[in-house]
Design brief:
The complex is a heterodimer of chains A (about 450) and B (about 190).
Chain A (H helix, E strand, L loop, with lengths): L11 H9 L2 H25 L9 H14 L30 H13 L4 H30 L5 H12 L1 H6 L6 H20 L4 H15 L8 H13 L3 H30 L5 H11 L13 H8 L1 H10 L11 H24 L12 H22 L13 H13 L6 H36 L1
Chain B lengths: L1 E7 L7 E8 L6 E7 L9 E9 L11 E3 L21 E4 L10 H17 L5 H31 L4 H19 L7 E7 L1
Helix pairs in contact in B: 1-2, 2-3
The chains are: A mainly alpha (about 450), B alpha+beta (about 190).
C-alpha cells in the first residue's frame, strides 16, 4: 500500500462515506474528542495524590522545586550512599542532566503564581502537563490526516485511541518529563511527514528544524527521530548532493541554535554532554546499586525471562505502572493483543498482495518511517533495560505513539473493508473506547487513591 | 474441608455480623465469593473477615494463603493485615453504600468516589469536581451519539434519531455489562485460597 499516493479514485461507496464524514465533520469530531481528553486528564490530575500521581512524579517536581528555591538550573552533585541499594532499578541519566526545558517554564510560572503549599504547587504543575495533551492530540490528528487521505475515519479513530488508552491519559495527568517529550516527539513526527511529503519545502524545513530542537531539549526517548530524519533526507536528496548538504546545514544550525547550549553546558560542568557515563559512575559510587543484567552475565533470553520484559512492557504500554496495581483487567490485554495480531496480519496481507509491485521509491514509504521510529524505539528501550537500567515500562516509547497508531491503522485497514459498513463499524468503536476509559477511571484509578487515603 | 468465614467489627472479639461455612471437596485452588448487603455496615466502618478451618483430625493444620482477585468500585477491600491482628483476619471496608436505585446508584458512587479521591489528593473544591465529572459525562455521551449518528447516516443515507439512540444505548449497555458486569451496590470479596 502506497500511503504517499495522492487521493485514489473513489468507489461509489467511498464517495458516500466521504460525504458522511467530510473535512469539517472530521475536524469538529476530533476537536470534541480532544476537548474531552483534556478535561478527562484534568479530572485525573485532580484525584491523583500529590507526588504519587505516576512514576517519579516527586523526583520531577524536586527539580522544579530546586529551580524555584535556588534559582537557575539544578546541578548534579552525585547520589547519597546506598541511594539505589536494595531496589530493583538504578538511574539511567540523572534528572539534573536529562534535558527538560519544559520544567524551566513550569518553574518560572510557579515562581510567579505558586503557593506556599507544596500540594497545591503539585496540582498547578500538573496543569502544564494536562495543557500539552490537546497539543499532542491535535498534532497527531494533523499527521493522521496527512497520511490517511483516503480513509476519512482513520484520523478520528487514531485520535480516539490516543485519547482513551489509560496510560496515555495518565502520563498527561501528573507532573512528568514524559509528557513534553511526547509532545516534542509528536511535533517532530508531524514535521517529518510534512517535510518529506513536500520534498523539503523551505517552510517545512524550518518547522522540522524547530521540532528537532525541541526534541533535543527534552528526554532522550524522542531522540530516534534524528537518525531517522537523516536517513530520510539522504534517501530523498541523494541525487542532489548540493541541496542535501544545504538542507543538512540548515537543519543542524536551527537544532543546534535551539538546543546546543544544553549539551555545551553539560560538557563544561561534567565533561559528559549526554550524561550517561557520569550518572553511571555516580550510581556505582553510591554503593549497593543493582548491577545491569548484561554486566551480571545474563544473556538476552535469561534477561527477558528474569524480568518478564515482554509481559511487563506490553501491559504497561496500555495501562498501569507495575508496582502500584494500576493494571487493566486481563481481558483488556487480550483485546489489545488481538488488535495487534490483526494489524500484523493486515501488513502481511498487504505485502503479499503487493509483492510483485515492490520497488524502491524516490521517497521513503511512510510506513517504513513509522516502523523505524516505533519499533526502533522498542529496540533501544530493550537494549537500555538490558545494559544500563532495568526500569521496565511501556510509556518510554510514547514519543512514537503516533507512528504506532499509523502502523496499527494501516494494518487494520487491510482487513476492515473500506466501504460504508466497514467505516460505520469503525465509528461504532468510538463509544466503546470512551466507555472503557471511563471504566478504568472508576474501577482502577479511583480505588487506588481511595485505598491510599484509607490507609493513611 | 470446611472453612468458616466470620464478618466481624473488630479483629478478635468483635461482634459477628454474619457468618458462613463453606465446604471444599477438592484440593487445589479454592475461590470464595462473599456477598453481603450494604446496610450491614456504615460508611468508613472497618470490617474484618476471620477464616477458621474446621478440621476432623485435631492434629491437622490448614495453611491458608490468600490473594485478592477483584477491584471493587464501591469501596476498597484492603487485604492489609495490621501488625496486631493475629491469624488470617482480612481487613476491608466499604466507603459508602449508595442510596439511589440502580442505575443511578452507579452515577452516585462515581461522583462520591471522585470527590473523595480529590479530597484525599488535596484537589479542588467539591463543586468544581462534580461539575467537571458532569461535563465529561455529557461530552462523552454527546461524542458517542455523534459517532453513532455518523455511522447510521453512512449506512441508511439519512439522519435517523431513533436508530441512533437505540444503537448508542445498546452499545453503552453492552459496555457497561462488560466493564461493570453484574456488579450491584453490594459488598463483594473474592478470595483465592491456596
Amino acid at each position: 500500500m502506497d500511503l504517499n499516493a495522492s487521493l485514489p479514485d473513489k468507489s461509489p461507496n467511498q464517495r458516500v462515506t466521504a460525504q458522511a464524514l467530510n473535512a469539517q465533520t472530521q475536524r469538529n469530531l476530533a476537536l470534541a474528542v480532544i476537548l474531552l481528553a483534556t478535561l478527562n486528564a484534568l479530572l485525573w490530575s485532580f484525584v491523583r495524590l500529590p507526588g504519587l500521581g505516576g512514576p517519579d512524579e516527586a523526583e520531577h517536581f524536586r527539580i522544579v522545586h530546586q529551580m524555584i528555591t535556588n534559582g537557575g538550573l539544578p546541578i548534579f552533585e552525585g547520589y547519597g550512599p546506598g541511594r539505589f541499594a536494595g531496589g530493583p532499578v538504578r538511574a539511567q541519566v540523572a534528572h539534573e542532566i536529562t534535558p527538560n526545558m519544559f520544567a524551566v517554564v513550569v518553574a518560572q510560572i510557579l515562581m510567579l503564581i505558586g503557593s506556599a503549599s507544596n500540594d497545591l504547587n503539585f496540582h498547578i504543575a500538573r496543569l502544564f502537563n494536562v495543557a500539552l495533551y490537546p497539543v499532542t492530540l491535535w498534532l497527531a490528528f494533523l499527521t493522521l490526516r496527512r497520511v490517511f487521505t483516503h480513509i476519512p475515519v482513520a484520523p478520528i479513530w487514531g485520535v480516539v485511541v490516543m485519547a482513551t488508552i489509560p496510560m496515555f491519559t495518565l502520563v498527561h495527568s501528573y507532573y512528568t518529563n514524559d509528557t513534553p517529550a511526547i509532545a516534542a516527539g509528536t511535533f517532530a513526527v508531524y514535521t517529518t511527514v510534512r517535510a518529506s511529503q513536500s520534498d523539503f519545502a523551505r517552510r517545512d524545513v524550518v518547522l522540522l528544524g524547530v521540532a528537532l530542537g525541541l526534541v533535543a531539549l527534552h528526554k532522550y526517548t524522542g531522540f530516534l527521530i534524528f537518525p531517522t530524519v537523516a536517513a530520510i533526507t539522504i534517501w530523498q536528496l541523494a541525487r542532489y548532493p548540493t541541496r542535501l548538504i544545504r538542507l543538512a546545514i540548515v537543519l543542524v544550525t536551527i537544532t543546534a541554535t535551539i538546543a546546543g547550549w544544553w549539551y555545551v553546558r553539560n560538557w563544561m560542568l561534567y565533561g559528559d554532554p549526554i550524561g550517561v557515563e557520569i550518572t553511571q559512575a555516580a550510581v556505582n559510587a553510591s554503593g549497593g546499586a543493582p548491577i545491569p543484567p548484561r554486566a551480571r552475565g545474563l544473556n538476552i533470553f535469561e534477561f527477558v525471562q528474569e524480568t518478564n520484559w515482554i509481559a511487563e512492557t506490553f501491559s504497561t504500554f496500555w495501562g498501569g505502572y507495575g508496582l502500584e496495581k494500576m493494571k487493566l483487567p486481563g481481558a483488556a490485554y487480550l483485546v489489545f493483543g488481538s488488535l495487534l495480531i490483526l494489524a500484523m496480519g493486515g501488513h502481511m496481507l498487504n505485502l503479499s498482495r503487493n509483492r510483485k509491485r515492490i520497488r524502491i521509491p524516490d521517497r521513503p514509504p511512510i510506513l517504513l518511517i513509522m516502523g523505524v521510529l516505533h519499533l526502533g524505539l522498542w529496540a533501544v528501550n530493550f537494549w537500555s533495560s538490558y545494559t544500563v537500567d532495568v526500569a521496565l515500562h511501556g510509556r518510554y516509547v510514547y514519543p512514537t505513539f503516533v507512528p504506532f497508531v499509523i502502523l496499527l491503522i494501516a494494518g487494520l485497514s487491510a482487513i476492515v473493508p473500506r466501504n460504508v459498513p466497514g467505516e460505520a463499524l469503525v465509528l461504532l468503536t468510538v463509544p466503546v473506547m470512551l466507555m472503557a476509559n471511563g471504566a478504568y477511571f472508576v474501577q482502577t484509578l479511583l480505588p487506588d487513591v481511595l485505598a491510599w487515603g484509607a490507609v493513611r | 474441608m470446611r472453612v468458616k468465614f466470620d464478618l466481624l467489627t473488630k479483629p478478635r472479639n468483635g461482634k459477628s455480623l454474619a457468618s458462613h461455612i463453606a465446604v471444599f471437596k477438592q484440593s487445589g485452588s479454592w475461590q470464595v465469593r462473599l456477598l453481603f448487603p450494604p446496610n450491614l455496615t456504615h460508611e468508613n466502618d472497618q470490617l474484618y473477615v476471620r477464616l477458621e478451618s474446621i478440621l476432623s483430625v485435631p492434629t491437622s493444620h490448614l495453611y491458608v494463603d490468600y490473594f485478592r482477585e477483584d477491584l471493587y468500585p464501591y469501596g476498597d477491600l484492603l487485604d492489609l493485615d495490621s501488625i496486631d491482628v493475629q491469624g488470617q483476619d482480612l481487613r476491608f471496608m466499604v466507603y459508602r453504600s449508595p442510596t439511589l436505585p440502580r442505575p443511578l446508584a452507579w452515577a452516585e458512587i462515581v461522583i462520591h468516589n471522585t470527590v473523595q479521591a480529590a479530597s484525599n489528593a488535596k484537589g479542588p473544591s467539591v463543586a468544581s469536581v462534580v461539575i467537571l465529572v458532569c461535563v465529561i459525562g455529557l461530552l462523552g455521551f454527546s461524542i458517542a451519539i455523534a459517532s453513532v449518528l455518523l455511522a447510521v447516516r453512512a449506512i441508511v443515507g439519512r439522519i435517523d434519531p431513533s436508530t441512533t439512540l437505540a444503537i448508542t444505548l445498546f452499545v453503552a449497555a453492552t459496555c457497561l455489562a462488560i466493564t461493570v458486569g453484574s456488579e450491584a451496590p453490594f459488598g463483594k470479596l473474592v478470595l483465592g485460597l491456596n
